[in-house]
Amino acid sequence: MWRALASNGLTIIIVIMVALAVAVGWAQNRYVAEGPLSEAICLQVKPGTSMRAVSRELEERGAIGSDMLFRMGADYTERTPLLKAGSFLVEPGASMEEITRQITTAGPSTCGTEVIYRVGINKAELVMRELDPATQEYVEVVKFDPGEAEAPAEYLDGTKGSDVRYRVTLAEGVTSWQVVDSLSRAGFLTGEAEVPPEGSLAPDSYEVRKGAEIKPLLARMQAAQQVILAEAWENRAQGLPYDTPEEALIMASIVEKETGVPEERRQVASVFVNRLEAGMKLQTDPTVIYGITEGRGVLGRGIRQSELRARTPYNTYVIDALPPTPIANPGRLSIEAALNPDSTDYVFFVADGTGGHAFATTLEEHNENVARWREIEAERSGN
Question: In the listed set 229, 259, 282, which residue is the last one of a domain according to the structure?
Answer without folding.
Answer: 229
